[in-house]
Amino acid sequence: MDKYDLILRMNTHFNQLESSLESLHQQLAEFPLLAAQVFTLPDIEKGQEHEAIEQINVTPVVGEEARELGLQHFRRLFIHHNKQNVSSKAAVRLPGVLCFALDKTEYRDCITLIEHINQLKHQLEHIITVESGLPSEQRFEFVHTHLHGLITLNTYRTLTPLINPSSVRFGWANKNIIKNITKEDLLTQLNKSLNAGRAVPPFTKEQWAEWVSKEIADVQRLPETAKLKIKRPVKVQPIARVWYQEQQKQVQHPCPMPLIALCQTELGASMPKIGELPNYDAAQIKHKHKPQAKPLRLLIPRLHLYTDLE
What is the rounded distance in angstroms from the CA atom of residue 155 to the CA atom of residue 138? Predict the structure, then answer.
């Protein structure tokens, strides 16, 4: 695809996203507020992005102040929206829920706008991560050349509307991302990294090529029957558990920013019960018993890649 056309489309989509988020801000600022509760978390300062998290102290905010914090958070897309000492490599999180009373027309307009915003977010992510054809390590420069200071994680995060929820409770999730990968796909990924001809600090270009070549050789030695698994640890995340009384159903959502509860009062919906997000303390976590998994051998540490073979 023509690079100029790609850049033009990226900028056009982003301008539409900013405009749509402004419209949503105006909409949600005018709707009757049934309840709002958000939980501010400590800032992650520059240089602390990769430190293990043992404790997180939560500060609850309610009412109109919570609504205003939430509406501002939806539009927090650039580094300059953060405080000066806050890391730009870690997205600021603001779990919580904003609950609004809506009539039929307001509900239709609001849900249509939220869906449009999420569609723009998906399209932007696709343009940057897929259509650009760039490997992940080159996307930063591409994005920041044309949208200077953009925090892509904040930009990609979609809004989550809740339709007439009965209750919203909060908690913490601490788990691994596990993904099976074929030997063929892994070799394709490694060869792409090798052929890029880059230097990855602290390696020189030649040292990095030698390192990746060794990884390729290690994978090629594996039999075709070998099972390969990427098991990447994820930092603790706030989550919300939403209960719908009529459907007798619970849905769990990641909650890096406030959920938007749309309560159709004309249909008899009322304010949901809202729980608290407790402080996080890694020492107090009680793990459920799980059957002992087959031990895995770490094959490529930087990719968190494991194999079932010794």
Answer: 18
